[in-house]
Every structure is written in structure tokens, then in C-alpha cells.
Amino acid sequence: MPDSPLFTVAAIAVIVLAVAVVVGVGLKVMRSFRDLGTDAERATYNTLHAASRAGQHLRGGLQPAGAAKASKQLRTLLGCEALAITDTGSVLAWDGAAEELRPSLMRLAAEVLATGRTAVIPAAKESAHGDAAYSAVIAPIRAGSRVVGAVAAFAPNAGAGLVRATGEVADWIAAQLELAELESSRTLLMEAEVRALRAQISPHFIYNSLNAIASFINTDPARARELVVEFADFTRYSFRRHGDFTTLAEELRCIDRYLLLERARFGERVQVSLRIAPEVLSTVIPFLSLQPLVENAVRHGLEAKEGPGHITICANDSGAFAEVTIEDDGVGMDPEHLRSVLAGHSDGDHVGLRNVDARLRQVYGDEHGLVIETALGEGTLITMRVPKSQPGHDA
After folding, report:
1. Which DSSP symbol is given to 344?
2. In whole angstroms, what is the distance from residue 350 CA to residue 41 CA?
3. pTM > 0.90: yes or no
4. Phi, psi at residue 121, to the nearest 5°?
5. Residues 240, 254: contact at Cβ < 8 Å?
């Protein structure tokens, strides 16, 4: 009978057995994922992991501290008893045994550094304790056509496999150094663009601001003193020498000082509205990336317009991004001319727009360049989107 105790016990036993099988299979699958399955999979993971960790230490170039940390990972890759990294003049790092050979390494590597060809040096010396002698494979590290250093691997026997592997490691280090040079070039380019923005601010804005301050000295000395303080704070921020990044809050304070000085010139002709979401004020942005956009709105949008003009600055929380818009109802510009400006084909015109757009693309990628909507007589709307989370950027 279906309702008998025997049937119930049998059903429970089947269920327990099924659960045990499912749990056993699940644990086996989880264990296979955790243990990376086969020996080949584990070897691949270990190799990639060691290369990744070593690469992080070489991104600053061929320096002693980074080379010392990278050498530990690279010796694991080669499976040799000792590994050394040199530049053209000295031993930067040594990891493993055979430290007694370190003083003679640069002499052994001299021909490799001069010719750019890998050398295999047979065992020629035993240690002071009578241990086995070591052969050396020394491979050049090239940067373009130049040899900038060498990798030396030491083992009791330097077979063909170690020779090829050491050469590959030397080429891999060269690739990391090229990435370091690209990063350095990118940083220098950003610094040059910031200097260009500062140069743009200097002659035009400073001259006009000082003239505006001078006009108040006799008629309103208190206002003149206030403007001098604002001018000093603005220039101190604009010409600071530390950091490529700032916060949205700091940039907005700079813009407030800039607009106060411009309103001293234009009076009621320049009207400003702000709509700022407090939660985005701490967002990190490239230094001097908003002020040039506001200056562009004043100089190229409102200055040429008859009667009063209006600038609206908004900063909103847009999920993972902070979205900032700067809109003016000025004279606008021809879209074709704008494309030429952003492509760098119009020297001296709207340099602030071009430089800010280029810096945003370099820092965050092409999808984060400025979005500009404009037409002649229709004003201009500029939108900038930056990630709210930027672990590698400090304000």
C-alpha cells in the first residue's frame, strides 16, 4: 500500500541518496574550479599570475625597487636558481642563490649590453662552500634600437630551454618598459595641456581683471579690496603646482571666483544659475577641466552678444557617473567649425574646449569626451561625464 511505513521509509531513503549524490557532484565541481582542474591549467594560471604581479612592479620603469620585486616573480617563471636584472651601468636586482657572482655580473654582461646578443656563459666558478657551479644565460633588454639592460638567469646547466625562456623574459620586460614610457608620455602630455590652459588664462583674463579692479579703486575701495582677494585666490588655484586632479567642489569654487571677477567687468550682462547635487561634490575631475568651459561661455558666447546673457551650470548624480552641463544662451558657433576646433585644426581658437576634450579622452577613454550642442545664434550646451569612482586618481 502507498501509505505503508515501508513505502515511506523507502521514499526517504531514495531522497537522502539523491541529495547525497547532488552534494557530492557539487563539491567535486566546486573543488575542480578551486583547484583549476588539470596540471596544465594550474601551470597556466601560475605563469599568468606571476607575470601579472611582476608587470605591476615594472610600470615605473627600470628602477631598483621595482626590479627587486619583479625579479622574485620572474625567477619563479624561469625555474632557475638565481635571477638578476641590470641596467647599462649596475645590477638593479638579484634574487636567489650565487650572490658571490654578483660583483662580476656587469663584466660578464658587458658584451651583451654592447652587442644586443644573448650570451651563454658556462660554469666557471664554485662557491666558497664547495657548492655546484652555475652557468649563466644573459639576455638583452631592448627599448627600440637601444639596449637598456639585461636579464641574467643562473642554473647548474644552461640548456636550450632556459636560453629561449630567458630571452622571452627579457622581451617581456622590454614590453613593460614601453608601457611605462607611454604612461610617462601621457602624463607629460596632460601636464603640457594644463600649462596651455594656464597660459590661456594668463594674458586675457588677468589683464581684464586688473583693469576691472583698478576701475573700483577710487569709486568703491571696499569692492576693489574684495576683488583683489578673489583674484589672488583664483590665480593661486589656477597656477598651483601639485596634482593633475581636483574635486568638483574645488573647481566650482574656482569658477565662482572667476565669475565674480567677470561680473565686475560686465555687470548685469552676465547672469548665472547653479544647480548642484551635493552627492557629486566630492567627485574627482581633471584639474582645470570646468573653468575653461565656463570661460569659453563668457568669452565666445556672451561677450559678443548684445544685452544680458545667461549661463547655467548643473552637476547631477547619474548612477556610476557625475554629469556636469554648462549652458549659455550666447551667439553659439558653427558645428563644422566646432569639429575643426576639436580636431586641432584651428589654432588659437577655443583652445580651452580642445584641451579639456583631449584630456578627458586620455584619462577616461574616447566615450568620455565633451558632448557639445551648438548652432549659430542658438547658444551652446556642453556636457561632461566622469566616473564617480576613480581609485587611481587623487585630488
Report:
1. T
2. 55
3. no
4. -110, 115
5. no
Contact status, residue 277 vs residue 335, Cβ threshold 8 Å: no
Integer angstrom CA distances of residue 62 from 51, 87, 378: 16, 7, 54
Tally Cβ neighbours within 10 Å of residue 92: 20
Dump pLDDT digits (tens) for 46-70. Answer: 555 556 666 676 767 788 888 888 8
Q: Do residues 244 and 194 make contact, with C-beta atoms less than 8 angstroms apart? A: yes
> Is 353:297 a contact under the CB 8 Å cutoff?
no
**C-alpha grid cell, residue 58:** 615594472
The C-alpha atoms of residue 95 and residue 78 are separated, in whole angstroms, by 12
- Domain definitions of the chain by residue range: 39-179, 217-387
Contacts of 283 (CB under 8 A, 6+ apart): 247, 248, 322, 386, 388
Tell me which fold the domain 39-179 belongs to.
Beta-Lactamase (3.30.450)
Contacts of 133 (CB under 8 A, 6+ apart): 123, 124, 125, 126, 127, 156
Q: What is the mean pLDDT of the chain?
A: 80
Beta strands in the chain (DSSP E): 82-87, 91-96, 119-121, 135-143, 146-155, 245-247, 270-276, 284-286, 309-318, 321-328, 371-374, 380-387
User: What is the third-level CATH fold of 217-387?
Assistant: Heat Shock Protein 90 (3.30.565)
Please report, for residues 25, 44, 46, the alpha-carbon distance to residue 37 in angstroms, rounded to integers and kept in the order given: 15, 11, 13
Is the confidence at residue 99, as pLDDT, over 80? yes
- Given CA atoms 26, 31, 36, 39 in this order, what sign does their dihedral have? negative
Amino acid at 358: A
Higher pLDDT, 239 or 10: 239
Alpha-carbon distance 360 to 337, whole Å?
Answer: 21
**H helices of 85-240, where?**
105-115, 160-216, 221-238
